Amino acid sequence: xxxxxxxxxxxxxxxxxxxxxxxxxYKNEVCVLLSLGLACRASSGAPGTxxxxxALHTAKITGAYIALIxxxxxxxxxxxxxxxxxxxxxxxxxxxxxxxxxxxLGWYYFGAARDGSRGFLEATVSGRFVLxxxxxxxxxxxxxxxxxxxxxxxxxxxxxxxxxxESFASWFRSSxxxxxxxxxxxxxxxxxxxxALRRPR
Length: 201
Description:
The chain is mainly α. 75% of the residues lie in helices and 0% in strands.
């Protein structure tokens, strides 16, 4: 029994030595992390500072639908993704990764709405506008590369009008309209948050 206790004490002492050595080697990094943590805690300790209630409400709505989409993509990736995109263009694994990121982003929105993080909410306005422009640029470049004559390899890819016998869903997926819809959603969300942040408190 005494031998077991002595062995346990030696193991604990070794752990303490390793932790102490690591803290000494990375004391600057530890200090920076502690400072950032204290700063974040101090900023979150004053909920609602400088943020209109309408902006907080908009953040909650945005967080809810982004998180819901993310969870659905994780649970049923091919079913949900296949509604607006061509499933063959992306592996099931990466659809789930994208869903996980969406769910995490929704969690961030809820945190910002709870503590009134105006800086984060303002950053989402410019960020989502830029994302919308980038998505439209991607669609434009894909459409330009897909402009081929009928009967040639690659014809029909890119943005095109639906032809006879082609279902709307098939046309929607093949012409990258899913990205256009995603761009429009982000632009509308950014505009809504911009208006909400400009409302009187």
